[in-house]
Design goal:
The protein is α+β, with helices and mostly antiparallel strands. It folds into 3 domains: 131 residues, ATPase, nucleotide binding domain (Nucleotidyltransferase, domain 5), CATH 3.30.420; 95 residues, Nucleotidyltransferase, domain 5; 69 residues, Actin, Chain A, domain 4. 38% of the residues lie in helices and 28% in strands. The strands form 5 sheets. It has a 6-stranded mixed β-sheet with strand order 3-2-1-9-10-19, sandwiched between helices. Strands 13-12-11-17-18 form a 5-stranded mixed β-sheet, sandwiched between helices. A 3-stranded antiparallel β-sheet has the order 5-4-6. α5 packs across α11 and α6 crosses α7. The radius of gyration is 21 Å and the shape is flat. It binds adenosine-5'-triphosphate and magnesium ion. The site of magnesium ion has 6 residues, from loops.
Length: 349
């Protein structure tokens, strides 16, 4: 019965990211783009809201509601909450068709997950209602989403700078040659901004304000047009509400050390590549994607520091999920780059 249904089910690509989850429905496109968040009633354990609705509640919840970030640095840290929100996201993906079955999911995962962590991704996808889960390396998915010629005997470098992790990889002939996964990305930049504002202005701000500052006035290098933003927070000395004007140079100073660490890690991956591959990278340039790659002048800064062309992928935030979409739509062609297919118990003989 299950086998029969699964043959006619729909296929999906899933990017279960630290801050955003996207679902690509085969032959349709991206149908879900939501915050990876759950609002949970800590007395009853019930899911109160999820996704973008839960994001609106950050910092404003009564004490009986917790906002849970079930993925930390690309890894599932709360299985039940991940399962609950993924079920709801799949329901959204299936629109109003409650009989819709999901046959196959290709799920992007960070490079350095342990066996146990990989298994938990498979388990969560299966228990959220998909018959079979296949995992794809996040950097490979990003390369597919960026339409890089991954099967050709030329090396391409892709750097996905997301919220919880930065994935740096050199890909050639369908596989990764060298890669590195860093736990420094958008969320670390938000923390940097929170700390800087506290030290410089004696002002306590929450993560949403820090993220706003980063996106509205942040940059990796000095801007020609100066930017500023007025923010409200709590005065660190007397605890009262206070307003200050923050300028682009403040945000730039706050995040500069973390950005330098990202650049130095890209450099070390390039330096550890065999000379033929370095030559390819010099020729093809470095491709960057992920939400944080949209930071003003970041591609220019990386290019200047490393003396290599840097290309910002089109629609950088959805690059990985589009890659999972390519893999699931052209499954036969790409199945060799997928790892650890999970055989659910009811299909085993
Ligand atoms: N214009 C922008 N400038 C700078 N940062 C941005 C911008 N837009 C989004 N971001 C940051 O991008 C991050 C989200 O990116 P993305 O959706 O690629 O992450 P993710 O896939 O959820 O995380 P990960 O891949 O690390 O698990 C957030 O930290 C967000 O603050
Ligand atoms: Mg991501």
């Amino acid at each position: 019965m299950f086998k029969f249904l699964s043959r006619f089910g729909r296929d999906v690509g899933i990017d279960l990211g630290t801050s955003n989850t996207e679902i690509y429905l085969a032959n349709r496109g991206i149908v879900v783009n939501e915050a990876t968040l759950a609002a949970i009633n800590n007395k009853t354990g019930q899911l109160v809201s999820f996704g973008n609705e839960a994001k609106k509640m950050i910092g404003r919840t009564p004490i009986h509601i917790d906002i849970v970030r079930p993925i930390v640095n690309g890894v599932i840290s709360d299985f039940e909450a991940t399962e609950a929100i993924l079920k709801n996201f799949l329901k959204l993906a299936g629109e109003k068709d409650r009989f819709l079955q999901f046959r196959r999911a290709v799920v992007a995962i960070p490079a350095n997950l342990t066996e146990v962590e990989r298994k938990s991704v498979e388990d969560v996808v299966i228990s959220a209602g998909v018959s079979r889960a296949y995992l794809i390396d996040q950097a490979l998915a990003a390369a597919l989403g960026a339409r890089l010629p991954i099967h050709e005997p030329t090396a391409n470098m892709i750097v996905d700078i997301g919220a919880g992790t930065t994935e740096i990889a050199i890909i050639s002939m369908g596989g990764k040659v060298i890669s590195k996964s860093l736990k420094i990305a958008g969320e670390k930049l938000n923390e940097d901004v929170i700390r800087f504002i506290r030290d410089e202005f004696r002002l306590i701000i929450g993560e949403p304000t820090a993220e706003d500052l980063k996106i509205q006035i942040g940059s990796a290098m000095p801007l020609t047009d100066k930017l500023e933003m007025v923010i409200q927070g709590r005065d660190n000395s007397n605890g009262l509400p206070k307003e200050v004007t923050v300028r682009d140079i403040h945000v730039r100073t706050a995040i500069s050390k973390s950005l330098r660490t990202i650049v130095e890690n890209i450099r070390s991956v390039i330096e550890s590549a065999p000379p033929e591959l370095s030559g390819d990278i010099l020729k093809n340039g470095v491709f960057i994607c992920g939400g944080t790659s949209m930071l003003r002048l970041l591609s220019e800064m990386i290019s200047r520091e490393l003396s290599v062309a840097v290309h910002l992928v089109d629609d950088p935030k959805t690059c990985v999920v589009r890659g999972t979409g390519v893999a699931v739509e052209r499954f036969e062609e790409f199945k060799e780059v997928l790892t650890y297919p999970y055989a659910p118990r009811d299909i085993k003989v």
